[in-house]
Structures are given as structure tokens and as C-alpha cells.
């Protein structure tokens, strides 16, 4: 039997900001780059719209109890839209202000095997267990709602669940909403270095933090990440990256940190 080929972790090319040539009569400090005014106005308008809609839905609670599950579903969709805006703004801020990234130390650490800790910026993570599962325990309420009752959920046709149970420690300066926000990016990798994102509605997985539950700085939480992957996929690792906090102006990390779950594979940086 042929041994698996060591995994070659591929890093995204580092971005380079071009600087226009200038010849001032005397040296002057380089101005800090800022987001274009139009982009800031557009993002602010999008956030205002999302917050306004969420407030309107909340105000209807007393008069629409019979459809509260649908209301919650709508609010979750609005949260998802806001998270998308935050993620885009965070990426834009990181590209325009690379010199102002206090968390981007360039010293991210990897880990091999379960129980070993890897670090990306202000996020520490270790895999407690990982492997294939025929089903996952999922909230029976339906898409976008929660009733606290759980049952087995099967994967789609021609796919399987590969599930990683991880322990996350928040060493940033702000609370983290792990299941309904975007505190860090996490993906699973197969032996071909193909990346897979977790299933949606992580708060509906039994044992996971509730939506909008805040993991405070210095505290630790356990999170289960189910990934739906092809039947023939050989999953070998997870990768994660601290994306920073656009509200506080904290920059994120450019590169992934890896936790290898298959002893036959290694990360070569």
C-alpha cells in the first residue's frame, strides 16, 4: 500500500501595497491609509439597515407569538448579513492598514495531533477529537430556529460528516460570538489540500454555544464543527486564522495556523 504524500500547506500570496512615487522638498510622515469615504458610508448604511430591521422584528414579538420561530429565523438571517459586512470590512481594513495590525505577529504556531495547542493571533485552539460520523445531533426545530430538542441529522446524498471537536481560548481584547459571528476563520483540509467550511447554524449543534453567546477574553469554550465532505475525501487537518475585530480596529492574521489530525501528514511552511 502506497504511503500518503505529506500535506503541503499552501499559503495565500502576501499582498503588497504599491506606493506612488513622490519627491517632497522635505520628508514628511506617511499618512495613514483610511477606507474610502464612500465605502465607509455604504458599510454604515448597510449596518444601519440591518440593525433597524432587527429592531423592527424584535418589536413585533408581543404581537406575533405564534410565528416566533419565523421571526427568529429572520433575525438569524440578518445576523448573517451583518457578519458578511463585518468580514468584508475587516479584510479591507487589513489590506489598507497592514502597518497597524497589532495581532499580526507572524509567529503563528501549528500543532500535530489531538490535544496539542495551535495559536493564531489572539486565538488558541486544540482539537479534542476528530473523525467521520454517520449523523450529528442537531436541533429538530428546523432551519434558523431552536427549541432545545435534538435528533440525528444525516448528511446529504454522496457526502459524509467529518466532525472536529475543538477547545477555543479567547486571548483577544474583545468578547467573541463563536456560533453566529466571525471571530476567526476555520476550515478543514483533505489530503489534496482542498478546503471545506463548517455547516451553517452551528448554534443548532447539540452542546455548542448559543447564538450571540459571548466568549469573554481569557476564557475557554468547547465547540463542535461538523464539515460535510465528499464520500471519498480523506480529511487530515483543520486550519484557522484570527480575522481581527473591525469595531475595535484590531487587525487579523494573514496566514493560517494548522492542526494536523492524521499522523501520516505534516505541515511544511
From TrEMBL:
Domain of life the protein comes from: Bacteria
Bilayer-spanning residue ranges: 38-62
Coiled coil: none
Annotated Low complexity bias: 1-25
Chain intervals for the UniProt region annotation (Disordered): 1-32, 94-118
Regions of compositional bias (Polar residues) in chain numbering: 104-117
Name this protein carries in UniProt: DUF4352 domain-containing protein
Assigned keywords, A-Z: Membrane, Signal, Transmembrane, Transmembrane helix
Amino acid at each position: 500500500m502506497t504511503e500518503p504524500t505529506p500535506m503541503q500547506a499552501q499559503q495565500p500570496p502576501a499582498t503588497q501595497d504599491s506606493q506612488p512615487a513622490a519627491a517632497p522638498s522635505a520628508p514628511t510622515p506617511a499618512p495613514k491609509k483610511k477606507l474610502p469615504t464612500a465605502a465607509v458610508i455604504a458599510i454604515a448604511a448597510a449596518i444601519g439597515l440591518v440593525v433597524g430591521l432587527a429592531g423592527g422584528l424584535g418589536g413585533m414579538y408581543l404581537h406575533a407569538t405564534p410565528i416566533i420561530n419565523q421571526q427568529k429565523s429572520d433575525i438569524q438571517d440578518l445576523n448573517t448579513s451583518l457578519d458578511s459586512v463585518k468580514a468584508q470590512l475587516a479584510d479591507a481594513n487589513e489590506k489598507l492598514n497592514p502597518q497597524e495590525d497589532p495581532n499580526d505577529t507572524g509567529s503563528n504556531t501549528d500543532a500535530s495531533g489531538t490535544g496539542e495547542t495551535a495559536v493564531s493571533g489572539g486565538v488558541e485552539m486544540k482539537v479534542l477529537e476528530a473523525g467521520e460520523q454517520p449523523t450529528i445531533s442537531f436541533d429538530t426545530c428546523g432551519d434558523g430556529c431552536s427549541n432545545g430538542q435534538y435528533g440525528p441529522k444525516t448528511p446529504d446524498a454522496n457526502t459524509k460528516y467529518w466532525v472536529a471537536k475543538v477547545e477555543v481560548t479567547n486571548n483577544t481584547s474583545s468578547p467573541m460570538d463563536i456560533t453566529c459571528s466571525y471571530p476567526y476563520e476555520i476550515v478543514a483540509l483533505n489530503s489534496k489540500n482542498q478546503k471545506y467550511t463548517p455547516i451553517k447554524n452551528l448554534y443548532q449543534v447539540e452542546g455548542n454555544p448559543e447564538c450571540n453567546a459571548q466568549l469573554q477574553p481569557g476564557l475557554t469554550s468547547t465547540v463542535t464543527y461538523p464539515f460535510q465532505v465528499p464520500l471519498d475525501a480523506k480529511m487530515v487537518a483543520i486550519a484557522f486564522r484570527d480575522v481581527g475585530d473591525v469595531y475595535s480596529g484590531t487587525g487579523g492574521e494573514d496566514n493560517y495556523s494548522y492542526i494536523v489530525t492524521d499522523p501520516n501528514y505534516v505541515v511544511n511552511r
